[in-house]
Amino acid sequence: MGYPDTQGFAYSFARGELTLDRIIFTGISNVSADQPTEEGVVMGTRPYPLARTVGSMGLGEGSITFSDEAERERFIAHLGNAWREKIFTLSWVLTSPGRPNIRNTCEGCRLLSEPLSHESGSDALGGDITFSFMVKKINGKVPHSGMPALTR
Predict the structure, then answer these.
(1) Considering the entire predicted model, what is its pTM?
(2) What is the CA angle 110-113-76, rounded to 5?
(3) Domain-by-domain residue ranges, the chain?
(4) Fewer Cβ neighbours under 10 Å: the N or C end of the chain?
């Protein structure tokens, strides 16, 4: 009987890549993304569900925290005029020694807001952006069957 390796290293946010027109932005300290599935049910003459449907997904939403305000501004500047209409891909990789990498990708992303919150202190100024996306993939796998490949 083997024991779990409690001394191993956990996955870490070792590198994040926000890719736009083959330009990689790396000054990222946090990424969050969620795209829930809303389930439906099959109802009959009983007071409880008889079955469930596959459900449907709307646009996902997420946020990126840039650890460097200059990197955030460079990203927005590269999008150019009408930056909230430009589409981009976000990907980040989780790594751990001796374990396979986990690659997360949000495709069909579009900026929704760029809130500012600057304050005095020893840390560098950074900033957030919020975005919507079409599909989130984990290691290239999509959450529902029949989803089109959006990768350009």
Answers:
(1) 0.80
(2) 65
(3) 15-35+51-138
(4) N
